[in-house]
Each structure stands twice: as C-alpha cells, then as structure tokens.
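Chain A, query sequence.
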Amino acid sequence: MQKVSTAAYSNTKPHYLILDGLRGVAALMVIWYHIFEGYATSPFDQKFNHGYLAVDFFFILSGFVIGYAYDDRWKKITSWDFFKRRLIRLQPMIILGALFGAASFCLQGSVQWDGTKISLSMVMLATLLTMFLIPVAPGAGGEVRGNGEMFPLNGPSWSLFFEYIGYVMYALFIRRLSTKALTVLVVLAGIGLATFSFLNISGFGNLGVGWSIGSYGYIGGFLRLLFSFTMGLLISRKFKPVKIKGSFLICALSVIVLMSIPYVGGQNAMWMNCLYDSVCIILIFPVLVYIGASGDVTDPNSAKLYTFLGDLSYPLYIIHYPLMYLFYSWLWTNKLTFAQTWPVAIAMFFGSVALGYASLKLYDEPVRRWLTKKFLTK
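Chain A, predicted structure.
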C-alpha cells in the first residue's frame, strides 16, 4: 500500500488528518463532561471532571493549524481575506447554535434557573448577542439564565469569542513576531496562566474559566487563549516530524484519560487540581499535538475515520449545549440520579452526535460552500 503523508492533500497544503481526529475525540469528551455536569453539585464531586481542558487543546490545535496554513501566505492575502475565511468557517454554526439555544430556552418556559420569567424581548436580545458573539455581563438584561454565562443561550460560544480574539491578534501583530519573540510571549503567557491557576483565582482550584466575564473570568479565559494559541503557533514554526508508531492511538487515549478523571486532590487540597490543569495545558497538550502532527496515515479507513471526527468536532461542540440545558432542567426538576437515568445519558450522547452530524451536512457545509463561492472565489 502506498504510504499517505500525515495529511490528505487539498489544492493548497497537506491537511493533518490525525490532528483532525484528535479534535473530534476531544469534542466527544466535552459531551461526556457536560452530561456528568448535570449530576454534580460542584466541581469537587463531578465524576467525569476535566472535559473543560478540551478548550485549551482546541486552542493549541487552532494555533498550530493557523500558523501552518497562513504564516507564509501574507504576501498573497490581506488581513481582511484572513478574517473572511475565519468568519465563513465559524460564524454559520455560531448563528445556528444561538437559534437552537433560543428554542431550548423557550421550550423550558423562558425562565431563569430560579424560576424568574424572562420577556420575549430579552430572549430576542440574548439571541442577537449570541449570534454576533457580544458578551453579556452577569445581571444584565440579556443574561437570561441568571447564572452568569457570557452567552446564556449557548454557553460554549465563549471559547469562540476568545478564538476570534486570537485571530485578530494573530493577523495584526503576532504573525509579525520573530520566533524568538514568539517564544518569549509563550513563556510569559504560560507563567501568567500557571499563576492564575495556583492563586486559585477561579475559586474552585481549576482552570475551567472564561465562560463568564464576572469574577476574573475574562482574564482567565484570555490567559487560556493566549498561552495555548501562541503555543500552537510556536509548534508550527518549530515543527520537525519524528517517527512515532501508533501516534493517533497514543494521543487519543491520552486525551480520553486526561479529560475524564475526577477532581484531583479534593476540596481540602485544591492546589493538586491546579497543578494537574497547569501540567496538562502547559506541558502535556503541546507534546500530544506534536506527536499527532508527526504521525503517518497509511490506512484509507483510518483516514476516513479521522476526517469524520474532524468534520464533526466543531458542529458537535457548538450545537450540543442547548440539548444539555433541557437535560439539566429535567434532571434537577425531578432530582434524578445517574443510576436512574443512565440510558437517557447515553441517548444524550448519541443524540448530540446525530444533531451535530445533521447540522454539518444539512446546514454548515452547504452554507460555507455558498459563502465561499460568493465572497472568496474570484
């Protein structure tokens, strides 16, 4: 069999299939993390605990892919060309996720978690704000669920808000940095992130922050983005493949284990979980991305699997949480346990995957093709 490179070739550059597959694995772990969030009373007793670290993994992957795809193209494209491509790639699903979130909220009776009734005008405002990634402050009128989310109709949109910030910084100045200057920025960002973690600014001994702009959430989210995105860029500049057999299996199993274990140390030793989060983000995830990018794909069936996981990852991530809101409402209203509802939890997982895939094929891909033809094809 002819050996396939680390990527399948498109009209421009090779596309890293194993990294696509790993992105899909991380997105699946996010689903399980959010399912088990419904059964927890706090981070300390959540059994499936570290799925929030998938966001940092996504940021590193984004930095690597953006650096690889665009670092050598700035003589041929403008910043506006770059922004158009990013908007076409991400914005359609952000809009659909906002609409699903609005529908989910209305199905719940348009009430906050404490039962306060929300007017239709505020629901419409929250929908528009989520569609255009305009964050909402805790307690503001558009913060319709009442639990401080930056985007209360579709919580995971917060990471796309920060990813857009990363793109703007990259286009305006980070791409111009020398490799040495970029390395300094990565080191400083890593120190800042570790400091934020070990000072326990989140209050829960973890780095699961950024979803709210209250209580230093914006600072935490920005530090997560700044370190991970610039680390990905740095890896793309320094990358030289190494021979590693079974790289996808090694990396996929590592992602599954690292993101699924319970809270480390307990409420009386939160520093241990702070250390765990910091080591995962700052040390282990960059190594996994490097290993994944080094791997070879020699089997067409494996290539199809990695492509499927990669294509599914973003729609799955951005579309699943409106379902979770309905799931949480059912669990909390009826005070149900996992032992009582595990078949529903499994159905939630596969239902989320099915919804993500349907959104990809029926909406995301057709819309992106149309937008690309209209705005990018000369």
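The two ends are 38 Å apart (CA to CA). Residues 7-375 form one domain.
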